[in-house]
Specification:
five-stranded antiparallel sheet; mainly beta; 84 residues; SH3 type barrels
Length: 84
């Protein structure tokens, strides 16, 4: 099987590595969303975010600041932008 690389991403965690220090959108179970700067993650996809904000209907519901989200509560993580 041939490996296809797009934007320098070959494995799923490559996308998270490229997103360190950048803003990401994280969707959690229970229909909760957070936006913040990805500081770190581990193999369980536990993540540390800085300047985290809880979002609701595209607007900031609550400013949280530095926070930790457990990987087993995360549905998806999306880079806010692939440029840069």
């Amino acid at each position: 099987m041939k490996t296809i690389m797009v934007n320098g991403i070959e494995r799923p965690l490559d996308l998270l590595n490229q997103s360190k220090g950048k803003e990401v959108l994280i969707q959690l179970k229970g229909d909760r969303q957070f936006v913040g700067t990805l500081l770190a993650f581990d193999m369980h996809i536990n993540v540390a975010l800085d300047n985290a904000k809880e979002m609701q209907d595209g607007e900031v519901k609550k400013n949280i600041g530095l926070t930790f989200l457990r990987g087993d509560t995360i549905i998806f993580i999306s880079p806010a932008s692939m440029s840069g």
